[in-house]
């Protein structure tokens, strides 16, 4: 099933986060079956309250990041088991904002993906090239390199989701053309097939970066696009619901 994931990033206090989650959950509850799985990833401070508000609605909960460690003296970290304990099914790892602003390397992302799966979560591993990398024709090489480096050796492909998010498309209102998305997703699909055999074809490949209700249908129609990871448009219930409907 397709997956539409909303990444709220560092947005939302309790009242507005709860209102947003309830609006999305109500829309989903009103129109089952959707034909697409819908997921929201609020900031860690909202996971407990939002999780309680959406329990049993069909809307899934996920974290935006997790510690590579299982437990212990890691001040400020949130473990994957803590996320699972709050009802999360998914966690995003290796988002470009964490790679860019928090210095996360491929190796660090791989450790987080392993920690996520050890706690029973599905890991959404993010990859994507910068604008300068695309400009010099290196997009595919960069993305496949990140992919290879960001998966632990013992990754379980049945609990893996990959999100292609070109850094230059995030929050910019600019998106790659369908042909450009098809090229990268096709390369990722091929790579996953080589690595995991037939199971690789079942790994969901999400596109992320300036997805809106207006462009969602065209993006979701691109071959090897199995859903999307939505930032800004996931903060407005009607926009996020529009994108979910485009996938259903
Ligand atoms: P935007 O949808 O705001 O471009 O963000 C995409 C993203 O980073 C989702 O993880």
Quick overview of this protein structure:
With 248 residues, this protein is of the alpha/beta class.
Key features of this structure:
248 residues, alpha/beta, TIM Barrel, 10 helices, 17% strand, globular, binds 1,3-dihydroxyacetonephosphate
Which residue ranges are poorly predicted, with pLDDT under 50 across at least 5 consecutive positions? none
Q: How many β strands by DSSP?
A: 8
CATH 2nd-level architecture: Alpha-Beta Barrel
Main pleated sheet: 8 strands, parallel, barrel
Broad structural category: alpha/beta
Per DSSP, the total helix count is: 10
N-C termini distance: 9 Å
What ligands does this structure carry?
1,3-dihydroxyacetonephosphate
Q: Share of helix among residues? A: 40-55%
- Rg: 17 Å
Describe the protein's architecture and organization.
This protein starts with a strand and ends with a helix. With 248 residues, it is of the alpha/beta class. The chain is globular. The chain contains ten helices and eight strands. The protein has helices spanning 14-30, 47-54, 80-85, 96-101, 106-118, 131-135, 139-149, 178-196, 216-220, 237-247; strands at residues 2-7, 36-41, 59-63, 90-93, 122-127, 160-164, 204-208, 227-230. The structure holds 1,3-dihydroxyacetonephosphate (13P). Residues 7, 95, 165, 170-171, 208-211, 229-233 line the site of 1,3-dihydroxyacetonephosphate. 1,3-dihydroxyacetonephosphate is lined by residues 7, 95, 165, 170-171, 208-211, 229-233.
